[in-house]
Amino acid sequence: MQLDSRLSTKDHFELFGLTPGFDIDTGQLASAYRELQQQTHPDRFVNEGESLRRMALQLNSQVNEAYTTLKSPLSRGRYLLQLRGLLMDESDTRMETPFLMQQMALREALENSGQSEDPLATIDSIRQQLEADTNALQQSLRSQLAQQSPQGDSEAWQSLRKLQFLVKFAQELDEAEQRLSD
Predict the structure, then answer these.
(1) Predicted TM-score (pTM) of this structure
(2) What angle do CA 53, 57, 61 make, to 5 degrees?
C-alpha cells in the first residue's frame, strides 16, 4: 500500500494543498482532510507489517494535528507566525488597557446576565458584541499577516493574543448559555 507523497511534508498548508495564509478555503481543507484520513487510517493497515502500521499511525496523527491547527483562525494565525520563526509566549498575558477594560465590561455583563429579565437574551446580546469584536480583530490580523514584515508580525502577535482572550470568553458564554438551558 502506498501513502500520498504529501504526507512527507512538514508544512500543514502544503499537506492539504493550500496556499499559506490566514484566509483558507475551509471546504478544500475539509475535503483534503477526509481524503488523507482515508489514506492513513490505521484500520487500513491492519494486515501490513509493523513498520508500515506505525508509519500510518504517525501520519494519521500528523493529519489530525494539521487539520485541527488550520481549522481554527487562532491556531492558524499562530502557526503562520511559527512558520516565520516567531513563537508566542503563552504565559505573557500583558495587554493594552483599553482592551482589558473592554474585556472586563463584557465579563461583568455576563456575570450580571443571570439577574436580567431574560438572561438568554442578555447572553445573546453579549455574543453579538463578541462576534463583532472577533470579526474586526480577524480582519486586522488578516492584513497584519499579509504584510509579511517584522512590524506586521509583531502587530499580528498582539492581535492573536487578543483573539485568544475572545475565544476563551466565547467558550465561557457557551457554558453560561448551557447552564441556563439545562
Answers:
(1) 0.84
(2) 170
Q: Residue 139 is placed in which grid cell?
A: 480582519
Task: Give backbone dihedrals phi and psi of 22, rounded to 5 degrees, phi first.
Answer: -70, -40
- What is the rounded CA–CA span in Å between residue 75 and residue 42? 26
CA–CA separation, 80 vs 159, rounded Å?
A: 13
Of 130, 118, 121, the C-alpha closest to 172 is 130
Per-residue model confidence as pLDDT tens digits over 117-174: 999 999 999 999 999 999 999 999 999 999 989 999 999 999 999 999 999 999 999 9
**Contact status, residue 81 vs residue 88, Cβ threshold 8 Å:** yes
The span from the CA of 77 to the CA of 94, in Å, is 19
CA gap 2, 9 in Å, rounded: 15
Beta strands in the chain (DSSP E): none
Q: Is residue 5 scored above 70 in pLDDT?
A: no
